[in-house]
Design goal:
Structural class: alpha+beta
Distance between the termini: 55 Å
Strand order of the largest sheet: 1-4-5-8
Order of helices and strands: HHHHHEEEEEEEEHHHHHH
Strand content: 5-15%
Number of strands: 8
Number of helices: 11
Helix content: 40-55%
Shape: globular
């Protein structure tokens, strides 16, 4: 059984064989993965040691102290937080060995092709079609041809691979006729177009798929089981967005508290009381996240992650709104409206105006707050579900 002492020994051996000061960052990351120190709870040979997930912090602390490079998780968050756990649970041995190492090292960026113009909150209503071929193409029989449109795709302009759900049987009810694939974003027929946001940037994209050929070897799970596979992705996504580990007074509440301490001339009693309330809420959310991560050490995340994502969105919008109000005219400044395509989102390193604008998307991305409230009500609290008259109707017969 791997314990903390064993992990420290393994980490010391990695550092001795690959000193961070003289080893190229990518070479170090590859060696770390091969040593099983990437995500220690993964199986041996796939970046892990079958060790308790709770001990990951032991490895991370040793490597941070030694100045080892990280894999820029902000840039590859979709791969780490969504694609990897789905591949681990549903992927074949060949799929896991092909995709997990370059995913973790950051050599290959991933994106998520789920939402559509007519299937956002009601994701199961998606219309992108995947039709199986008969003996065509270099992969032989069993390829799939995909046509459709996806939207709000973060990082698609950088991604090599995408996790994709598409409808493979329109004659079944909407949740049953979906299949899950891995799509090569460099293939012919994949067209990525930027979507400019209120911040002026274009993190998001719309993606058009026209006759995109996907080999059956890139299918995750059984045909028609895509909705079940997607639930693993979505549950992990909400934990990744709302449950990131932060220190006390970390993240956006730390920035707001820093503004309060630095600008005493702007203080009022009302703003003070509101900041105190937000500080307490942020601390409660942080501690709840710690408890959720402890639960994760025992298995896959459940619907409780939806509650964390709800809290994250609400706090981000309330804190950024407080900060803009506190700073007055200074809170309205914005550095650059030029259309840019950033690597990720920076909620603490930019000005207050950026945080205020960007936080507006938090209650939409990763599942709208309205949908997540339903999930918490029905699957966490056990309240009666809302009436549904479309669950047993074939997708092709649904009004659109």
């Amino acid at each position: 059984m791997t314990d903390a002492a064993d992990l420290r020994r393994r980490t010391a051996e990695l550092l001795a064989a690959h000193p961070p000061a003289t080893t190229a960052p990518l070479d170090f990351l590859r060696a770390r993965f091969d040593a099983g120190l990437a995500w220690i709870h993964f199986p041996e040979g796939l970046g892990g040691l079958d060790a308790p997930r709770a001990l990951q912090s032991v490895v991370d602390a040793e490597l941070t102290a030694a100045g080892a490079p990280d894999n820029n998780p902000g840039r590859i968050g979709i791969g780490l937080g969504m694609a990897a756990p789905t591949l681990l649970r549903y992927g074949t041995d060949a799929q896991r060995r092909r995709f997990l190492r370059p995913l973790w090292t950051g050599e290959e960026v991933w994106c998520q092709l789920f939402s559509e113009p007519g299937a956002g909150s009601d994701l199961a209503a998606l219309a992108t079609r995947a039709v199986r071929t008969e003996g065509e193409g270099p992969e032989g029989t069993g390829d799939w041809l995909v046509d459709g449109q996806k939207v709000w795709t973060s990082g698609a302009h950088q991604a090599r691979w995408a996790i994709l759900i598409a409808r493979t049987d329109p004659g079944l009810p909407k949740h049953q006729g979906i299949t899950y694939f891995v799509c090569d974003m460099t293939d012919p027929g994949v067209d990525v177009r930027p979507l400019r946001q209120i911040t002026g940037e274009a993190e998001f994209n719309e993606v058009f798929l026209t006759g995109v050929r996907i080999p059956d070897a890139h299918r995750l799970g059984e045909v028609g089981e895509g909705w079940r596979v997607a639930q693993t992705t979505l549950m992990n996504e909400r934990v990744a967005i709302g449950g990131a580990r932060t220190p006390r007074e970390g993240g956006m509440i730390g920035v707001a508290a820093g503004d309060w301490r630095a600008r005493p001339e702007l203080r009022t009693h009302d703003l003070h009381q509101r900041l105190l309330s937000l500080w307490v809420d942020a601390e409660v959310a942080r501690l709840t996240g710690e408890r959720l991560r402890q639960q994760l050490t025992k298995g896959q995340p459940g619907p409780e992650g939806s509650g964390m994502k709800l809290a994250f969105a609400r706090l981000a919008q309330q804190i950024s709104g407080w900060e803009v109000e506190f700073l007055g005219e200074d809170g309205l400044t914005y550095d650059d409206w030029t259309l840019r395509r950033p690597d990720g989102v920076d909620f603490t390193g930019r000005e207050a105006g950026y945080r205020y604008l960007r936080a507006k998307g938090n209650s939409i991305e990763g599942g709208t707050s309205e949908v997540l409230l339903n999930i918490v009500a029905e699957r966490v609290l056990g309240l009666p579900p809302e009436p549904r008259n479309d669950k047993d109707v074939a997708w092709k017969d649904l009004p659109r």
